[in-house]
Amino acid sequence: xxxxxxxxxxxxxxxxxxxHSTLPENKLPRASAELGSPFSPNISNFLLxxxxxxxxxxxxxxxxxxxGQTPTGVYAFVDSNGVSHTLLATVTGLYQLNKQWPQNPSKxxxxxxxxxxxxxxxxxxxxxxxxxxxxxxxxxxxxxxxGITSPTSANQNAFSPVSKYDTTHNLYFGAYFLGELNYQVIxxxxxxxxxxxxxxxxxxxxxxSGSGNPTHWDPTVDTTAGYNPLLDVPDSITGxxxxxxxxxxxxxxxxxxxIPVTNGVLPFDFNHLWASDRGIGNxxxxxxxxxxxxxxxxxxxxxxQISTSSFDRIGAENRDAVIADLxxxxxxxxxxxxxxxxxxxxxxxxxxxxxxxGNVTKIWVYSTEDKSWTAWTEESGVIxxxxxxxxxx
Length: 393
Fold this sequence. Notes:
This protein is an all-beta fold. It has a domain at 69-325: 7 Propeller (Methylamine Dehydrogenase, Chain H). It has one helix at 319-327, and strands at 46-49, 52-55, 71-78, 84-90, 93-97, 109-114, 125-129, 132-136, 143-145, 160-161, 164-166, 171-181, 184-193, 199-208, 226-229, 237-243, 246-251, 255-260, 268-272, 289-291, 294-298, 303-306, 311-313, 334-338, 349-356, 360-367, 372-378. The strands form seven sheets. The chain has a five-stranded antiparallel sheet with strand order 11-12-13-14-15, with no helix packed on it.
């Protein structure tokens, strides 16, 4: 008589703690006072909320991208007239969502102009300052749009470059990362035009605009503008967030605090939390995300959450699985923190989206409230820009 296969059964009861990817399925920790609630060997395409397993929200092509364009990011801001705008950056230009798009989805986007230089495949970076949006895409300019100016036959771009760092030689610069701190726009990992032509990539460079004036970047014209090449650290900048009054510059092997000290000349103090070539840093440039008092980033060996008073590992039982997926990424992993899935559905999640082979996106979702991980798979395409909540009507 043939031997029957071994059989075991495990019953899982709420509250759940998410995926535990490092232990065999028959060795998962049980609920107890010491270990807390039970894990699951696999939770795919579901959410955890308050210890409950809930259906995930589907991605759907609500608004199609302009024909022939490759998107690099979306953004929303309110102009000085109180009008909301939803913007789409693509490889070649900037578009605004037409609020009548439901009646004519094929003409959902109105062109605001074209980029003419730059590393246009980099995820677009945006920041709002005094009711205007400033944006860049790893090219040679930081652009400004006020939400009011429209393209004309004489000026085909509604937006204009504002990042002249050398007025004597009429030289502009762009950047890979943007932020705002101390009433100034911050540009990091810069791309700077050179005298005689060409550009210089400066992955260690930090520049800041004049105080209250993001159109002035030349310190010989506005002494509150300036720059700092972080030449005393052995790596490059990979991200930037602000928490409270401090900015945090993420590098491959470290983190540098950027602390405001004045509104005048030399307005910032730069403090390296560690400056070695083997410290904890952010190794994937677009995986840094912040919401309120917390920031999350991916290092070589774990995922970390940072705040003004703590520095914690959060990869936990799924660190190995997340790191393994990141190693198989086919292009830039991109992360964001969304506070909700709509006005009535408050879910505060860190979304780490990883492009995989076969035009598939693997999404690791971390709940900042439940401190749990689940995994999603999206087979309709890869995510190429930071996800945001935007007005569509």
